[in-house]
Amino acid sequence: MIPAVLEQRRAGVLLHPTSLPGGVGNGDLGADAHRFVDFLAQAGFSVWQMLPLGPTHRDGSPYHALSLHAGNPMLISLDRLVEWGWLEPDRPGAAVNVAAYRVERLAQSYKKFMQRATDSDQRDFAAFINREAHWLEDYALYRALRREYSGQAWFQWPAPLRDRDPDALATARVRLSDELEQVCFEQFVFARQWEALRSHAEQRNLLLFGDMPIFVAHDSVDVWMQREYFRLDDSGQPTAVAGVPPDYFSAQGQRWGNPLYRWERMQADGFRWWMARMTTEFRRFDLLRVDHFRGFEACWEIPAADATAVNGRWVRVPGEALFESLLRHFGSLPLVAEDLGMITPEVLALRDRFDFPGMEILQFAFDSGADNPYLPHNHRKLGVVYTGTHDNDTTLGWFENLPAERQLRVVEYLGYPHEPMPWPLVRAALASVSQLAIVPMQDILALGRGQRMNTPGTTDGNWRWRFHWEQIAPDLGERLKRMTAMYGRTAG
Protein backbone atom coordinates (compact mmCIF):
# COMPACT_ATOMS: atom_id res chain seq x y z
CA MET A 1 0.00 0.00 0.00
CA ILE A 2 1.40 3.38 -1.02
CA PRO A 3 1.74 5.81 1.94
CA ALA A 4 -1.16 8.25 2.04
CA VAL A 5 1.13 11.21 1.36
CA LEU A 6 2.22 9.55 -1.90
CA GLU A 7 -1.19 8.56 -3.22
CA GLN A 8 -0.75 11.20 -5.93
CA ARG A 9 2.28 12.19 -7.98
CA ARG A 10 4.31 14.92 -6.38
CA ALA A 11 7.51 16.88 -6.88
CA GLY A 12 9.73 18.40 -4.24
CA VAL A 13 12.99 20.17 -3.56
CA LEU A 14 15.82 19.11 -1.26
CA LEU A 15 17.19 21.97 0.80
CA HIS A 16 18.31 22.05 4.42
CA PRO A 17 17.19 25.16 6.35
CA THR A 18 20.82 26.11 7.00
CA SER A 19 21.15 26.65 3.22
CA LEU A 20 18.48 29.35 3.14
CA PRO A 21 19.39 33.02 2.65
CA GLY A 22 19.08 35.36 5.61
CA GLY A 23 20.04 34.53 9.15
CA VAL A 24 23.37 35.14 10.84
CA GLY A 25 25.95 32.66 9.57
CA ASN A 26 23.37 30.13 8.37
CA GLY A 27 19.79 29.98 7.22
CA ASP A 28 17.13 29.55 9.87
CA LEU A 29 13.38 29.26 10.49
CA GLY A 30 12.62 32.92 9.92
CA ALA A 31 11.14 34.93 7.08
CA ASP A 32 13.28 33.32 4.37
CA ALA A 33 12.01 29.85 5.30
CA HIS A 34 8.43 31.07 4.89
CA ARG A 35 9.35 32.75 1.61
CA PHE A 36 10.86 29.48 0.40
CA VAL A 37 7.58 27.70 1.16
CA ASP A 38 5.81 30.27 -1.01
CA PHE A 39 8.35 29.82 -3.81
CA LEU A 40 7.89 26.05 -3.82
CA ALA A 41 4.11 26.32 -3.86
CA GLN A 42 4.14 28.88 -6.67
CA ALA A 43 6.48 26.62 -8.68
CA GLY A 44 4.13 23.63 -8.43
CA PHE A 45 6.09 21.72 -5.83
CA SER A 46 4.30 20.13 -2.89
CA VAL A 47 7.20 18.63 -0.89
CA TRP A 48 10.12 20.24 0.93
CA GLN A 49 12.76 17.69 1.91
CA MET A 50 15.43 18.59 4.44
CA LEU A 51 18.19 16.93 6.48
CA PRO A 52 17.94 16.03 10.21
CA LEU A 53 17.15 19.00 12.47
CA GLY A 54 19.05 18.07 15.63
CA PRO A 55 21.80 20.11 17.33
CA THR A 56 25.13 19.28 15.75
CA HIS A 57 28.68 18.73 16.90
CA ARG A 58 31.39 21.12 15.78
CA ASP A 59 31.67 19.53 12.34
CA GLY A 60 28.13 20.69 11.59
CA SER A 61 26.96 17.29 10.35
CA PRO A 62 23.22 16.86 10.96
CA TYR A 63 23.72 13.08 10.88
CA HIS A 64 25.60 12.98 14.22
CA ALA A 65 23.39 15.04 16.47
CA LEU A 66 23.67 15.70 20.19
CA SER A 67 20.01 14.73 20.61
CA LEU A 68 17.36 12.84 18.65
CA HIS A 69 14.52 14.93 20.07
CA ALA A 70 15.95 18.46 20.36
CA GLY A 71 16.01 21.03 17.59
CA ASN A 72 19.18 22.81 16.56
CA PRO A 73 19.19 26.23 18.33
CA MET A 74 21.34 27.58 15.48
CA LEU A 75 18.16 27.34 13.36
CA ILE A 76 16.28 29.78 15.59
CA SER A 77 15.47 33.02 13.81
CA LEU A 78 16.81 35.95 15.83
CA ASP A 79 14.74 38.33 13.73
CA ARG A 80 11.57 36.53 14.81
CA LEU A 81 12.60 36.99 18.45
CA VAL A 82 12.94 40.73 17.80
CA GLU A 83 9.47 40.76 16.21
CA TRP A 84 8.04 38.99 19.28
CA GLY A 85 9.58 41.61 21.57
CA TRP A 86 11.91 39.08 23.18
CA LEU A 87 15.14 40.57 21.81
CA GLU A 88 16.54 44.01 21.02
CA PRO A 89 17.55 44.68 17.39
CA ASP A 90 21.24 44.23 16.60
CA ARG A 91 23.49 43.45 13.65
CA PRO A 92 26.79 41.56 14.04
CA GLY A 93 30.08 42.83 12.71
CA ALA A 94 31.72 41.25 9.68
CA ALA A 95 34.31 39.34 11.74
CA VAL A 96 31.93 37.99 14.37
CA ASN A 97 32.11 34.39 15.59
CA VAL A 98 28.72 33.24 14.35
CA ALA A 99 28.13 30.46 16.87
CA ALA A 100 29.18 32.61 19.83
CA TYR A 101 27.06 35.50 18.59
CA ARG A 102 23.96 33.33 18.29
CA VAL A 103 24.54 31.81 21.74
CA GLU A 104 24.85 35.28 23.29
CA ARG A 105 21.77 36.60 21.50
CA LEU A 106 19.71 33.64 22.68
CA ALA A 107 20.86 34.29 26.24
CA GLN A 108 19.76 37.92 25.88
CA SER A 109 16.43 36.75 24.50
CA TYR A 110 15.76 34.52 27.49
CA LYS A 111 16.32 37.46 29.84
CA LYS A 112 13.93 39.63 27.80
CA PHE A 113 11.39 36.83 27.75
CA MET A 114 11.43 36.59 31.53
CA GLN A 115 10.93 40.36 31.74
CA ARG A 116 8.41 40.91 28.96
CA ALA A 117 6.56 37.70 28.15
CA THR A 118 2.81 37.76 28.54
CA ASP A 119 1.10 35.46 30.99
CA SER A 120 -0.05 33.39 28.04
CA ASP A 121 3.51 32.98 26.75
CA GLN A 122 4.74 32.07 30.22
CA ARG A 123 2.03 29.40 30.48
CA ASP A 124 2.97 28.07 27.05
CA PHE A 125 6.61 27.82 28.14
CA ALA A 126 5.68 25.94 31.32
CA ALA A 127 3.36 23.63 29.36
CA PHE A 128 6.12 22.91 26.83
CA ILE A 129 8.58 21.93 29.59
CA ASN A 130 6.00 19.65 31.16
CA ARG A 131 4.96 18.04 27.87
CA GLU A 132 8.53 17.36 26.70
CA ALA A 133 9.98 16.45 30.10
CA HIS A 134 10.65 12.84 29.06
CA TRP A 135 13.64 14.05 27.02
CA LEU A 136 14.03 17.77 27.74
CA GLU A 137 15.16 17.56 31.37
CA ASP A 138 18.07 15.25 30.58
CA TYR A 139 18.93 17.14 27.40
CA ALA A 140 19.14 20.44 29.25
CA LEU A 141 21.39 18.93 31.90
CA TYR A 142 23.55 17.25 29.26
CA ARG A 143 24.07 20.54 27.39
CA ALA A 144 24.81 22.44 30.61
CA LEU A 145 27.33 19.84 31.78
CA ARG A 146 28.92 19.69 28.36
CA ARG A 147 29.43 23.46 28.51
CA GLU A 148 30.75 23.26 32.08
CA TYR A 149 33.32 20.67 30.98
CA SER A 150 34.48 22.71 27.96
CA GLY A 151 32.72 20.60 25.35
CA GLN A 152 33.98 17.25 26.59
CA ALA A 153 31.88 14.21 25.72
CA TRP A 154 29.79 12.68 28.50
CA PHE A 155 32.07 9.64 28.76
CA GLN A 156 34.95 11.98 29.66
CA TRP A 157 33.13 13.54 32.62
CA PRO A 158 33.81 12.56 36.25
CA ALA A 159 32.54 9.04 36.86
CA PRO A 160 29.54 10.00 39.04
CA LEU A 161 28.17 12.22 36.27
CA ARG A 162 29.24 9.88 33.49
CA ASP A 163 27.41 7.03 35.18
CA ARG A 164 24.40 9.16 36.16
CA ASP A 165 24.72 8.83 39.91
CA PRO A 166 21.41 10.27 41.27
CA ASP A 167 23.08 12.45 43.91
CA ALA A 168 25.59 13.84 41.42
CA LEU A 169 22.78 14.64 38.95
CA ALA A 170 20.66 16.31 41.63
CA THR A 171 23.57 18.48 42.73
CA ALA A 172 24.33 19.45 39.14
CA ARG A 173 20.71 20.44 38.52
CA VAL A 174 20.83 22.86 41.43
CA ARG A 175 24.25 24.22 40.45
CA LEU A 176 23.29 24.72 36.81
CA SER A 177 19.65 25.72 37.21
CA ASP A 178 20.01 28.94 35.21
CA GLU A 179 21.67 27.11 32.31
CA LEU A 180 18.96 24.46 32.34
CA GLU A 181 16.27 27.12 31.99
CA GLN A 182 18.19 28.67 29.10
CA VAL A 183 18.35 25.38 27.21
CA CYS A 184 14.65 24.73 27.81
CA PHE A 185 13.82 28.21 26.55
CA GLU A 186 15.79 27.62 23.35
CA GLN A 187 13.90 24.40 22.68
CA PHE A 188 10.61 26.17 23.37
CA VAL A 189 11.49 28.85 20.84
CA PHE A 190 12.64 26.30 18.27
CA ALA A 191 9.37 24.38 18.64
CA ARG A 192 7.28 27.54 18.33
CA GLN A 193 9.13 28.69 15.20
CA TRP A 194 8.96 25.20 13.69
CA GLU A 195 5.21 24.98 14.29
CA ALA A 196 4.74 28.37 12.63
CA LEU A 197 6.66 27.13 9.58
CA ARG A 198 4.76 23.85 9.52
CA SER A 199 1.45 25.72 9.73
CA HIS A 200 2.47 27.95 6.83
CA ALA A 201 3.46 24.89 4.80
CA GLU A 202 0.07 23.29 5.47
CA GLN A 203 -1.68 26.45 4.30
CA ARG A 204 0.25 26.21 1.03
CA ASN A 205 -0.45 22.45 0.70
CA LEU A 206 3.24 21.70 1.13
CA LEU A 207 4.39 18.49 2.83
CA LEU A 208 7.54 18.45 4.97
CA PHE A 209 9.88 15.50 4.33
CA GLY A 210 12.43 14.72 7.05
CA ASP A 211 15.47 12.50 7.43
CA MET A 212 16.30 10.08 10.26
CA PRO A 213 19.76 8.51 10.69
CA ILE A 214 19.53 4.87 11.78
CA PHE A 215 22.36 5.23 14.34
CA VAL A 216 23.03 7.89 16.96
CA ALA A 217 26.21 9.68 17.93
CA HIS A 218 28.20 8.18 20.79
CA ASP A 219 28.48 11.63 22.34
CA SER A 220 24.75 12.32 22.57
CA VAL A 221 22.27 12.69 25.37
CA ASP A 222 20.42 9.66 24.05
CA VAL A 223 23.34 7.32 24.71
CA TRP A 224 24.22 8.96 28.04
CA MET A 225 20.59 8.88 29.16
CA GLN A 226 19.81 5.27 28.21
CA ARG A 227 23.06 3.32 28.09
CA GLU A 228 21.17 0.05 28.51
CA TYR A 229 20.10 0.24 24.85
CA PHE A 230 23.65 0.42 23.50
CA ARG A 231 26.60 -1.96 23.41
CA LEU A 232 28.92 -0.18 25.83
CA ASP A 233 31.38 -1.22 28.51
CA ASP A 234 31.33 -0.03 32.13
CA SER A 235 33.17 3.18 31.23
CA GLY A 236 30.68 4.08 28.49
CA GLN A 237 32.89 3.07 25.57
CA PRO A 238 31.46 1.02 22.68
CA THR A 239 32.35 -2.65 22.49
CA ALA A 240 31.36 -2.69 18.82
CA VAL A 241 30.69 0.11 16.33
CA ALA A 242 28.82 0.59 13.07
CA GLY A 243 30.11 0.95 9.53
CA VAL A 244 30.09 -0.75 6.15
CA PRO A 245 32.40 -3.45 4.77
CA PRO A 246 35.19 -3.08 2.21
CA ASP A 247 33.91 -2.60 -1.33
CA TYR A 248 34.95 -1.35 -4.76
CA PHE A 249 35.25 2.21 -3.44
CA SER A 250 37.11 1.50 -0.20
CA ALA A 251 39.49 -1.39 0.45
CA GLN A 252 39.20 -0.85 4.21
CA GLY A 253 35.46 -0.19 4.34
CA GLN A 254 34.03 2.61 6.44
CA ARG A 255 34.23 2.73 10.22
CA TRP A 256 31.52 5.17 11.31
CA GLY A 257 32.10 4.70 15.03
CA ASN A 258 28.45 4.87 16.18
CA PRO A 259 27.70 2.48 19.06
CA LEU A 260 25.52 -0.44 18.04
CA TYR A 261 22.14 -1.14 19.58
CA ARG A 262 21.37 -3.89 22.05
CA TRP A 263 18.45 -5.02 19.95
CA GLU A 264 17.44 -7.79 22.35
CA ARG A 265 17.02 -5.17 25.11
CA MET A 266 15.02 -2.88 22.84
CA GLN A 267 12.75 -5.70 21.76
CA ALA A 268 12.22 -6.86 25.36
CA ASP A 269 10.31 -3.68 26.25
CA GLY A 270 8.36 -3.45 23.00
CA PHE A 271 10.74 -1.01 21.27
CA ARG A 272 9.67 1.88 23.51
CA TRP A 273 12.85 3.78 22.64
CA TRP A 274 11.93 3.70 18.95
CA MET A 275 8.31 4.61 19.68
CA ALA A 276 9.46 7.80 21.40
CA ARG A 277 11.91 8.60 18.63
CA MET A 278 9.35 8.15 15.87
CA THR A 279 6.75 10.16 17.78
CA THR A 280 9.05 13.18 17.66
CA GLU A 281 9.74 12.71 13.95
CA PHE A 282 6.11 12.20 12.94
CA ARG A 283 5.10 15.28 14.91
CA ARG A 284 7.45 17.33 12.75
CA PHE A 285 7.18 15.70 9.35
CA ASP A 286 4.62 14.28 6.92
CA LEU A 287 7.15 11.86 5.42
CA LEU A 288 10.45 10.54 6.75
CA ARG A 289 13.49 9.09 4.99
CA VAL A 290 15.24 6.33 6.98
CA ASP A 291 18.97 6.58 6.38
CA HIS A 292 20.93 3.30 5.92
CA PHE A 293 17.75 1.22 5.79
CA ARG A 294 19.73 -1.97 5.16
CA GLY A 295 20.90 -1.73 8.79
CA PHE A 296 17.41 -2.78 9.89
CA GLU A 297 17.96 -6.20 8.27
CA ALA A 298 21.61 -6.67 9.25
CA CYS A 299 24.34 -4.27 10.32
CA TRP A 300 28.10 -4.40 9.86
CA GLU A 301 29.53 -4.96 13.35
CA ILE A 302 33.13 -3.80 13.79
CA PRO A 303 35.19 -4.50 16.93
CA ALA A 304 35.57 -1.15 18.64
CA ALA A 305 39.34 -1.55 18.99
CA ASP A 306 39.80 -1.89 15.21
CA ALA A 307 40.84 1.18 13.23
CA THR A 308 39.18 -0.04 10.02
CA ALA A 309 36.04 -1.94 9.02
CA VAL A 310 37.93 -4.90 7.53
CA ASN A 311 37.31 -7.33 10.41
CA GLY A 312 33.60 -6.60 10.76
CA ARG A 313 30.78 -9.06 10.23
CA TRP A 314 27.10 -8.93 9.30
CA VAL A 315 24.78 -9.37 12.27
CA ARG A 316 21.05 -9.82 11.84
CA VAL A 317 18.71 -7.43 13.63
CA PRO A 318 14.95 -7.71 14.33
CA GLY A 319 13.87 -5.10 11.79
CA GLU A 320 10.65 -6.88 10.90
CA ALA A 321 9.60 -7.09 14.55
CA LEU A 322 10.44 -3.40 15.01
CA PHE A 323 8.36 -2.22 12.06
CA GLU A 324 5.47 -4.47 13.03
CA SER A 325 5.45 -2.89 16.49
CA LEU A 326 5.68 0.63 15.05
CA LEU A 327 2.88 -0.10 12.59
CA ARG A 328 0.60 -1.34 15.37
CA HIS A 329 1.38 1.74 17.44
CA PHE A 330 1.10 4.45 14.77
CA GLY A 331 -1.38 2.81 12.37
CA SER A 332 0.68 3.83 9.34
CA LEU A 333 4.37 4.41 8.66
CA PRO A 334 5.04 7.20 6.15
CA LEU A 335 8.67 6.14 5.66
CA VAL A 336 11.05 6.10 2.69
CA ALA A 337 13.80 3.49 2.76
CA GLU A 338 17.28 4.72 1.84
CA ASP A 339 17.99 1.44 0.07
CA LEU A 340 21.35 2.36 -1.45
CA GLY A 341 24.65 0.51 -1.17
CA MET A 342 25.07 -3.23 -0.58
CA ILE A 343 21.43 -4.26 -0.85
CA THR A 344 20.54 -7.95 -0.60
CA PRO A 345 17.29 -9.76 -1.43
CA GLU A 346 16.59 -9.89 2.32
CA VAL A 347 16.78 -6.08 2.56
CA LEU A 348 14.44 -5.66 -0.41
CA ALA A 349 12.05 -8.17 1.14
CA LEU A 350 11.98 -6.16 4.37
CA ARG A 351 11.36 -2.95 2.44
CA ASP A 352 8.57 -4.50 0.38
CA ARG A 353 7.02 -6.31 3.36
CA PHE A 354 5.96 -2.88 4.68
CA ASP A 355 5.50 -1.15 1.30
CA PHE A 356 8.22 1.39 1.99
CA PRO A 357 9.18 3.41 -1.11
CA GLY A 358 12.82 3.08 -2.10
CA MET A 359 15.18 5.61 -3.72
CA GLU A 360 16.19 5.94 -7.37
CA ILE A 361 19.28 8.11 -7.97
CA LEU A 362 19.69 9.23 -11.59
CA GLN A 363 23.38 10.06 -11.18
CA PHE A 364 23.92 6.35 -10.45
CA ALA A 365 22.03 5.22 -13.57
CA PHE A 366 24.64 5.37 -16.30
CA ASP A 367 27.59 3.30 -15.09
CA SER A 368 26.33 -0.10 -16.30
CA GLY A 369 23.87 -1.67 -18.73
CA ALA A 370 20.16 -1.47 -19.46
CA ASP A 371 19.34 -3.43 -16.29
CA ASN A 372 20.69 -0.65 -14.04
CA PRO A 373 17.86 -0.18 -11.50
CA TYR A 374 18.32 3.59 -11.46
CA LEU A 375 17.59 4.04 -15.17
CA PRO A 376 14.12 5.57 -15.56
CA HIS A 377 12.71 2.62 -17.50
CA ASN A 378 13.42 0.42 -14.45
CA HIS A 379 11.88 2.70 -11.83
CA ARG A 380 9.05 1.55 -9.57
CA LYS A 381 5.87 3.47 -8.90
CA LEU A 382 6.51 2.96 -5.18
CA GLY A 383 9.68 4.99 -5.24
CA VAL A 384 11.29 8.40 -4.81
CA VAL A 385 13.46 9.52 -7.72
CA TYR A 386 16.30 12.00 -7.24
CA THR A 387 18.68 13.65 -9.67
CA GLY A 388 21.18 13.44 -6.79
CA THR A 389 21.23 13.65 -3.01
CA HIS A 390 23.04 15.82 -0.45
CA ASP A 391 26.02 13.45 -0.76
CA ASN A 392 26.32 13.88 -4.54
CA ASP A 393 27.88 16.60 -6.62
CA THR A 394 25.44 18.91 -8.35
CA THR A 395 24.08 17.36 -11.54
CA LEU A 396 25.94 19.87 -13.69
CA GLY A 397 29.18 19.24 -11.80
CA TRP A 398 28.64 15.46 -12.02
CA PHE A 399 28.00 15.58 -15.77
CA GLU A 400 30.98 17.81 -16.53
CA ASN A 401 33.24 15.45 -14.58
CA LEU A 402 32.17 12.35 -16.53
CA PRO A 403 34.47 10.93 -19.21
CA ALA A 404 33.36 11.75 -22.75
CA GLU A 405 32.01 8.26 -23.46
CA ARG A 406 29.85 8.35 -20.32
CA GLN A 407 28.54 11.80 -21.23
CA LEU A 408 27.57 10.40 -24.61
CA ARG A 409 25.72 7.53 -22.97
CA VAL A 410 23.77 9.99 -20.81
CA VAL A 411 22.71 12.28 -23.66
CA GLU A 412 21.93 9.32 -25.92
CA TYR A 413 19.68 7.76 -23.30
CA LEU A 414 17.95 11.10 -22.72
CA GLY A 415 17.31 11.54 -26.45
CA TYR A 416 20.00 14.10 -27.32
CA PRO A 417 18.26 16.95 -25.47
CA HIS A 418 18.66 20.56 -26.59
CA GLU A 419 18.53 21.93 -23.05
CA PRO A 420 21.83 22.21 -21.17
CA MET A 421 22.46 20.19 -18.03
CA PRO A 422 21.00 19.80 -15.47
CA TRP A 423 17.58 20.28 -17.09
CA PRO A 424 17.48 17.00 -19.06
CA LEU A 425 18.08 15.03 -15.86
CA VAL A 426 15.55 17.14 -13.97
CA ARG A 427 13.00 16.35 -16.66
CA ALA A 428 13.89 12.65 -16.47
CA ALA A 429 13.18 12.74 -12.72
CA LEU A 430 9.86 14.52 -13.20
CA ALA A 431 8.84 12.15 -16.01
CA SER A 432 9.67 9.02 -13.99
CA VAL A 433 6.88 6.65 -13.00
CA SER A 434 7.97 7.03 -9.35
CA GLN A 435 5.32 8.79 -7.31
CA LEU A 436 7.68 11.38 -5.83
CA ALA A 437 10.48 13.26 -7.61
CA ILE A 438 12.98 15.28 -5.54
CA VAL A 439 15.45 17.77 -7.02
CA PRO A 440 18.20 19.39 -4.93
CA MET A 441 18.03 23.18 -4.90
CA GLN A 442 21.46 23.33 -6.54
CA ASP A 443 19.97 21.63 -9.61
CA ILE A 444 16.95 23.95 -9.58
CA LEU A 445 19.50 26.79 -9.83
CA ALA A 446 21.63 24.91 -12.42
CA LEU A 447 24.76 25.27 -10.29
CA GLY A 448 28.03 23.52 -11.12
CA ARG A 449 31.06 22.27 -9.28
CA GLY A 450 31.93 23.66 -5.87
CA GLN A 451 28.29 23.97 -4.84
CA ARG A 452 27.64 20.61 -3.22
CA MET A 453 26.40 20.17 0.35
CA ASN A 454 28.60 17.27 1.44
CA THR A 455 31.51 15.20 0.17
CA PRO A 456 31.43 11.81 1.95
CA GLY A 457 34.70 10.77 3.56
CA THR A 458 35.81 14.38 4.13
CA THR A 459 35.45 16.57 7.22
CA ASP A 460 36.21 20.10 5.99
CA GLY A 461 33.95 22.48 4.11
CA ASN A 462 30.75 20.43 4.36
CA TRP A 463 27.21 21.47 5.37
CA ARG A 464 27.86 25.16 4.62
CA TRP A 465 26.30 25.72 1.21
CA ARG A 466 23.71 28.50 0.92
CA PHE A 467 21.80 30.03 -1.96
CA HIS A 468 20.75 33.64 -2.54
CA TRP A 469 17.43 34.93 -3.80
CA GLU A 470 19.26 36.79 -6.56
CA GLN A 471 20.13 33.40 -8.09
CA ILE A 472 16.47 32.73 -8.85
CA ALA A 473 15.65 34.07 -12.31
CA PRO A 474 12.36 36.00 -12.58
CA ASP A 475 10.81 33.34 -14.82
CA LEU A 476 12.11 30.29 -12.91
CA GLY A 477 8.99 29.74 -10.83
CA GLU A 478 6.71 29.79 -13.87
CA ARG A 479 9.07 27.49 -15.81
CA LEU A 480 9.07 24.97 -12.99
CA LYS A 481 5.29 25.18 -12.63
CA ARG A 482 4.87 24.27 -16.31
CA MET A 483 7.22 21.32 -15.88
CA THR A 484 5.53 19.94 -12.76
CA ALA A 485 2.15 20.28 -14.45
CA MET A 486 3.39 18.67 -17.68
CA TYR A 487 4.50 15.55 -15.80
CA GLY A 488 1.40 15.33 -13.61
CA ARG A 489 3.12 16.36 -10.39
CA THR A 490 1.15 19.47 -9.44
CA ALA A 491 -0.62 18.16 -6.37
CA GLY A 492 -3.99 19.62 -5.50
Automatic annotation (TrEMBL):
Pfam families with a match to the protein in the record: Glyco_hydro_77 (PF02446)
Gene Ontology biological process terms in this record: carbohydrate metabolic process
InterPro entries xref list: GH, Glyco_hydro_77
E.C. no: 2.4.1.25
Catalytic activity: Transfers a segment of a (1->4)-alpha-D-glucan to a new position in an acceptor, which may be glucose or a (1->4)-alpha-D-glucan
MF GO annotations: 4-alpha-glucanotransferase activity
Alphabetical keyword list: Carbohydrate metabolism, Glycosyltransferase, Transferase
Keyword Secreted annotated: no
Family: Belongs to the disproportionating enzyme family.
This protein's name: 4-alpha-glucanotransferase
Organism: Sulfuricaulis limicola
